[in-house]
Amino acid sequence: MEQDSELSRATGNSTINQLTFRLGAFGAAVPLLFFVIWAITTSVLQLSSEIGLVLGAIFGITLGLFFCKSKWADYAQGLFDGLAQPIGVVAMVAWFYAGMFAQVLQVGGLVEGLVWIGMITGFTGGLFVGLTFILAATFSTAVGTGYGTTVAFCTLMFPAGVATGADPTILFAAILAGAVFGDNLAPVSDTTIVSATTQDADVPGVVKSRFKYAIAAAIPTLIIFIIFGGGGSIENQASIEATTDPKGLLMLIPFAVVLFLAISGHHIITSLTWGILVAVVMLVVFPVGSFSDVISFNPDSDNIVEGALINGITGYINMAILILLIVAAAHLLRLGGTMQVITSVLVKWIKNSVRRAEISMWAIVALLNSAITINTAAEIAAAPFVREIGEKYQIHSYRRANMLDAITSALGYIFPWGAPVLLGWSTITMMQETYEWLPIVSPTAVFPFVFQGWFLVIVMLVAALTGWGLRYQGKNGEELTEPPQ
After folding, report:
1. Nearest residue to 151 (alpha-carbon basis) of 85, 102, 81
2. C-alpha to C-alpha distances, 335 to 75, 195, 254, 374, 462, nearest whole angstrom
3. How sure is the predictor about 1, in pLDDT bands with cuts at 50, 70 and 90?
């Protein structure tokens, strides 16, 4: 029987529901806290690398083992349970498909086409940054993945923008800001769906009710990007300017195909697959590339398989490993009861104040997103608290879902140790192999300028403090301006 038990643990057939740690709830948070400190320190010292961040996550998880009072086998099983969660796997697959799609568009000359159109229309510098924010917001709202948007736009719009005089740091921030907008507002976004379902709300009603918050943040964001987005140097970009070619704009057709399919309700993987297929056909039919640019076999290469498709996958393998480790560390935090401790403290502070209840919801979502750098994972962790407090004070399900999703979508793209920021940094680093003049923007440099994220956090805090947009739950689910009697 004991051997069967050990085999069950080893194969992941048992599930751990609780772990106890030295130092209690703080001990359970050690793996994540260590990773955050490691990520910040290496970034500030300009020693960041993808594999180095993976090592930091492994160090954190290993350190947590020595804080665990439960059986180490239970700790290991809890870790495996966390690794097996769908959240991380879904993000990985989306990255791979988005990476392949963006790489195929890049070898088709879309970057050079965008530079050409920017030059002849005058959409350079700050105007290009503003356009990038609008397009990224549109794309992410349509396809429902801010991560995929970050990959695609850092591959395509970042080199084009830098070549036309955009400030690299502000341009990177505009891409992340656009991803924030769509992740928050897209009906098919995982954060939108999770925020609605966990608060027992319908997705269309949630999206409609949160539009005012998203726009309140987006308008000043766009203005600031246009005003301060210029000033980049184009001295070293003569090579791309010399090769600009309007034929590359043909690659906007598969881009439009992805948008159309996503808006029509197709899954992101389906949409990106058709986008890749259309792009490959156009590469072959039109004089913008060749099939060998998409995939080829080189026996003399270490990788054997070369081309855009393989580049779109291999460029994110380290990040895929990192996302799984972060999700696992977040799962260990939940098993250790950290959430319960935080909740009990805040409930005592709230007493009978609706304003304090909303401030508490804002605070707990912000706290979890600062530690759990995968936005959907942080949202799932915060959802029970938001629902419990919100229902107690009869706050409408739309309002609860908006408070949960807006802060999650915002902070997920701000912190330097956050997965989307690291993903964008990784993509830009990879693109430097193609465009040697391309500057690398560090995660610690970009985070103050992700204005859509910061403004959205501020908007929701103001809403909690002032009661702007507050609605109460009626007996039949209707929105009321006063608490029901």
Report:
1. 102
2. 9, 22, 44, 17, 33
3. very low
H-helix or E-strand containing 306?
A: strand 305-306
Q: Which two tokens stand for residue 373?
A: 């750098």
Q: What is the pLDDT of residues 233-284, one digit of tens each?
A: 665 555 555 556 788 888 888 888 887 887 777 877 888 899 899 989 988 8
C-alpha distances out from residue 251 to 97, 102, 315, Å: 17, 10, 21
Exposure pattern of 117-147 as b/e (b: 16+ CB <10 Å)?
bbeeeebbbbbbbbbbbebbbbbbbbbbbbb
Burial of residue 328 (CB within 10 Å: 0-12, 13-18, 19+) is: buried
407: DSSP letter: H
Instruction: Kindly indicate the confidence band of residue 396, based on its pLDDT and cuts at 50, 70 and 90.
Output: very high
Q: Indicate the SS3 state at residue 361.
A: helix
Mean pLDDT over each residue of the chain, to the nearest integer: 83
